[in-house]
Target: O-acyltransferase
Amino acid sequence: MGDRGGAGGSRRRRTGSRHSSQAAEEEARDAPAGPDVGAGGDAPPPDPDQPRVAAVGSSPRELSCHRLQESLFSSDSGFSNYRGILNWCVVMLILSNARLFLENLIKYGILVDPIQVVSLFLRDPYSWPALCLLIVANVFALATLQVEKRLAVGALTEQVGLLLHAANLATILCLPAAVAFLVDSITPVGSMLALWVYTILFLKLFSYRDVNLWCRELRAGARADKPANGAAAQRSVSYPDNLTYGDLYYFLFAPTLCYELNFPRSPRIRKRFLLRRLLEMLFLTQLQVGLIQQWMVPTIQNSMKPFKDMDYSRIIERLLKLAVPNHFIWLIFFYWLFHSCLNVVAELMRFGDREFYRDWWNSESVSYFWQNWNIPVHKWCIRHFYKPMLRCGVSKWVARTGVFLASAFFHEYLVSIPLRMFRLWAFTGMMVQIPLAWVTSRFFLGNYGNAVVWLTLIIGQPVAVLMYVHDYYVLHHEVAPAGA
Ligand SMILES: CC(C)(COP(=O)(O)OP(=O)(O)OC[C@H]1O[C@@H](n2cnc3c(N)ncnc32)[C@H](O)[C@@H]1OP(=O)(O)O)[C@@H](O)C(=O)NCCC(=O)NCCS
Model:
């Protein structure tokens, strides 16, 4: 699909994949044969019969037609163009999923219900605790700005400032957790959303405080005429002129967790780009909701009985069945969040740095995956946690374990509190990444490493999902299977 190279293209690729001596020999022999041979890859494919006619006319009969060469599938052949096979995989994938889609429709009918989504956010139409939490979040941001303003003019000592920031940041984590536990009208999805926003706020204000502290340290060390921000000479803002409401709120809404005084800005808002990302965002939101309701929920509901009966072979069968929709939804979620949503926000704010993800799909090790799939979080971890620990003389191994511990804490925080149960599956899932990273880098290299990374993504997540859903059902509901 999509291969416009035609006959000339495939001939060129075949030639390129042989040993160089054979290729040279062949090129020498074929040289007078016609315009297809050579580097001119863009030349139109010639009439296949034309060169042969010329060759037959001018040279003796072909006494030999064999040469020393490997079969294409042998690794010694050097052949690496499996594009056609990749296309075959895509066609097979579409066909097998079309069958699954039909099977699902025949079995369950249409389960997609947009109205049901509203009930996930609201239990009592007169009580909106999650929304109230989002509004209250402004208080913490403004408190941070006030502390920073006073620190900038020396009205507070650094120790008092540190104490106030620590209290503010601790409250940011505790308040939504307390509301999620104590207020009955908040739904699990509503409290997950509030906790997610508060976690982002925590990471952003942590970064804001760090960068302003670094600016003060630079200012203290610099001569009076030198700007505090290292590269600020030609830039617009230097410390402490950045301590304004506008600057703070720009950072709070910008698609990054790392603060800086002068963010790179794009020259203008590209309307067509923005419209495309917006349409993607809306379409993929619907698609995710539809796939969850139509595909994941019945599969999960049908997994409860095997779990209850401890029927291991059925549990594994259910797990593998859940792995497919779970993985699709996760891939869609990745594109939706990191490409569509973050680009929409960045485009609207003319935020220039669009590196929200790198090529994690080529990961040949678990470490590479964590360095590349979620760049805003990874950047924050490196800048505000990992490097400061290294600078304090902590070993790399301890610093890495520290980062994964913090990440495991936040993953558990975002799942356990909304569900009001502590099972540590998410925490364990993150902590397991450290030995897994060691094992993959030690025993699985190249394509094998890549396959292991995909396998852990495809199988690891549904295990955690099933564990939580099972425990939640056991705690809150009677099991009611939705079909066979
Ligand atoms: C733990 C983690 C931060 C390690 O990252 P890493 O890239 O493997 O770490 P490295 O040792 O290669 O070094 C990273 C940086 O520290 C720098 N560094 C290394 N040793 C250093 C030292 N002694 N002093 C100062 N800097 C040092 C490196 O130069 C590199 O800098 P760069 O990013 O500017 O190139 C990363 O795996 C991670 O982000 N994990 C958590 C991810 C996560 O939880 N994501 C959640 C997504 S939902």
Notes: Residues 1-49, 228-233 have pLDDT under 50 and may be disordered.
